[in-house]
Design brief:
The protein is mainly beta. It has one domain: Jelly Rolls (Sandwich), CATH 2.60.120. Helices cover about 0% and strands about 45% of the residues. The chain is built from one helix and 16 strands. The strands form two sheets. Strands 1, 3, 4, 7, 12, 13, 14 and 16 form an eight-stranded antiparallel β-sheet that branches. Strands 2, 5, 6, 8, 9, 10, 11 and 15 form an eight-stranded antiparallel β-sheet that branches. A hairpin with a 6-residue loop joins strand 3 and strand 4. The longest helix is centred in the first third of the chain and has 4 residues. The N and C termini lie close together (about 10 Å). The relative contact order is 0.24.
């Protein structure tokens, strides 16, 4: 149970250009947090393992910063590579305090934004999962808790799951390089998960069913199928969460 501090009083809110006075501050005023906190990760210069756990990688190569492109025109990506054996996995998940763990929940109303390039994946089966997923969840399992994008049978899906059932919306063929956003919000008693692909104004899908009910972290994974050497690349990732409960 979350117990809220009902004694902490806050400063008066003022319209633009209105004056504020010392008398309007309370003696017991102890904080002034903004409503939300934002952070960006995958910053060039930090090893992937500084912020992300790669322990769920199996058989494939652990994601690592790589300069990709011809000489003089390279671009830095975190590269995921499975190797050419079926069911090899390359994966990373954001850490909590230096260890694998969850960093947010549906109550935080998180917004995750990331860019991803698909180099090579097989056209059959589940091959990519990327989004908000519980840290300890086994990869590519059915009906897992979370809100994330899935690439399956050469098609992009928006997925929400509660651990028992899932809602998956077919978004059609995926682009080689795209920006993705998962936004969770509430209006009255209704919680919605919005999925965006490139167009950050008009949602590609909106889910109100089978919403995640477990704590989550950011997780990105690729798995090989039919002995295809699968490779994806990510160059930016950000998370915004509600600061106050």
């Amino acid at each position: 149970m979350v117990v809220k501090n009902t004694t902490s009083r806050h400063k008066a809110y003022k319209a633009t250009l209105d004056k504020g006075y010392a008398a309007e501050w309370n003696d017991d005023h102890i904080d002034d947090y903004t409503d939300e906190i934002s952070f960006q990760t995958l910053r060039i210069g930090y090893a992937v393992g500084t912020e992300w756990s790669t322990a769920q990688t199996s058989g494939g190569s652990a994601p690592v910063w790589t300069l990709v492109g011809a000489a003089g025109s390279g671009h830095a990506f975190v590269v995921f590579n499975t190797g050419g054996t079926t069911n090899n996995v390359s994966s990373m998940r954001y850490m909590l305090g230096g260890a694998a763990g969850n960093i947010t929940s549906i109550d935080d109303l998180p917004i995750m934004t990331f860019t991803m390039q698909i180099d090579t994946v097989h056209t059959a089966g589940k091959v990519v999962e990327a989004g908000l997923i519980p840290s300890a969840t086994a990869l590519f399992t059915a009906n897992q808790d979370g809100a994330y994008f899935r690439m399956n049978n050469d098609t992009l899906y928006a997925v929400t799951g509660d651990g028992a059932n899932e809602t998956a919306t077919d978004l059609g063929a995926f682009d080689e390089y795209a920006q993705y956003r998962i936004l969770i919000t509430t209006s009255g008693a209704t919680t919605r998960v919005y999925f965006y692909v490139d167009d950050m104004v008009n949602a590609a899908a909106v889910h109100t069913t089978n919403l995640p009910d477990a704590d989550m972290t950011m997780k990105i994974s690729v798995i090989s199928a039919n002995n295809v050497d699968s490779t994806i690349r990510v160059d930016a990732c950000a998370l915004q969460v509600l600061r106050k409960q």
